[in-house]
Structure formats: C-alpha cells, structure tokens
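User: Structure please.
Assistant: Input sequence and predicted structure:
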Amino acid sequence: MNRFAFLIAALALTATPLCAAEEAVSLPPPAYDPAPAREGAQKLVVAGGCFWGVQGMFQRVKGVSRAVSGYAGGARETAHYDKVSQGDAGHAESVEITYDPKAVSLGELLRVYFSVAHDPTQLNRQGPDVGAQYRSAIFVANAEQEKVARDYIAQLSGAKAFSAPIVTTLEPLKAFYPAEAYHQDYLVRHPAQPYIVYNDLPKIDNLKRLFPSLYRESPALTN
C-alpha cells in the first residue's frame, strides 16, 4: 500500500479530521521478567502495523542498540514490499530489536510494545492499514521469550487492561528478513510526511510521556 497516497485520498474524501495513532495505555510491568539465560545482546522481533512507526519508536528506547524494519512469518522469496503488501505472503511488517538486557529487559520492551507501539486489540489492522501483514504478533525465538510474552498477555488480559481482548499472536521466529533500504529509519528521515505526522509521531510523544526513564532523544539509527 502506498501510505502517502492513502492519506491524500482520505483527506480529499472527508472533511472530518483523520485519527492519529491509537491512544497509549498505561500498563503494569510484567510480573514475570527474568534475566536472560545467556549474556550479551539479545534480539526481539515484533509486529504491530506499519514498521515505520514501530521502528522509529523503539529506536528511542534506552538500551536498544539497533532496530531494523523487515518481514517475518513467511518465506524468503516473498520477503519484499510489493509481495508483502498484497497480504497473502504470510509475512508481517516487523521490527527486529537488538538490546542490552542490562539496560532494558525483555519485559520492559514488551510493556512498551503493548502500551505505546500499537493497539494489540486490533485484528489484522492498525490505524489506516488493513491486512494480515499489519497483524499484532511477537515472533518468539525461544521458550524463554515465549513464556515471558505469554505470561504478560495473560496478566494484562486478567487485569482487563484493555477494553477489548488482546489479539496478539505468538509465532515461532523462523527467520527475519530486513526490508528494503528506503524503509529503514523512515520516521527519522521523513518526520513531516503526513502519514508519519498523523500515525507515528504520537508514538514518540507517548513513549516520552509514559516511559521517561526509558526515553532518549537520539535514535539508534541503522546506518
């Protein structure tokens, strides 16, 4: 989908203001958030709508050294934007987050993911973007990640943290494929683009407001 074209068309068809990013929700920290079994940098792959905003938001989380936009859930041969945009490739627009667990834990990243990065109650859509490629998903790399994520979803569901059920899926991470170069650091390079202004910059504001101890001004760029 050409998101810029979508926004221009929407502006032309309606006199009412477009909705900005989904409202952030203040969430409790995970009750289960152990230190990783192995030392060193860790990786987490999540999906929650357009990867521009998810990448741009996680790039501003302290402890994250790299956040890459890409595709997960499908085959290598379909891991390119034109095919993924059709919605039938099995892929989700995803972000691979590399982080230092001594600076930010897996549970803290998941708290930010559910609170700020997207709306986990939306099935196969986020904001103006519709399709399975925009699904809410955590691509778990091991049993440890799966337990932390599954327990946190159960915790949030039990606490009725959202007004609707959480639809986030936990899917095995078979592979992550980086997206095309023009998608990387898109929010940072195009802050005035209408789609970014309406849908993604509010995520940055919400991160700063709800997680001031995790927020940093300078993003961790891919290049």
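Residues 69 and 168 are 19 Å apart (CA to CA).
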